[in-house]
Amino acid sequence: MTTWRPRAHIRVVAIGLHWRDGRLLAAEVRDDAGRIKGVRPLGGEIEFGESWRAALVREFNEELGIEVILKGQPLMLENIFVHEGATGHEVMFISEVEFPDAAFSDQERIDFREDSGDPIVARWFDLADLDVDGAPSLFPTGLKDLLLGAAKGGTA
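The structure corresponding to this sequence follows.
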């Protein structure tokens, strides 16, 4: 397992929200000891000269080998966080994504590899089961409230 630390600069990332039966697809986030500390929707860093839309489509293609369709306008979130003692800072474009018909429909989990070669597990989670005692956190912090606010017609 690669030891990951946020770099000391602002990253611009795009993450995709894929829902199945009201549950959100998210990948496990582990601490240095390999314990699951939370989950995060799939996506990644936007490359220089690349739009957030192109980056999100590219990330899902690289990670899962599928072409996604982006739905609606993005939510925006600034994410300042600490991981294993190192501070990270991201500006995030967050968009709902639609999978091709039947993609992963018979799977409860998706196994893939990160750019570093590390194995990643993604599963579908009910928002009500995240950010509660004894359960994984939903990263980035504040995403759950943002999603619940958007679902109620609030502004992001």
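The longest helix spans residues 52-64.
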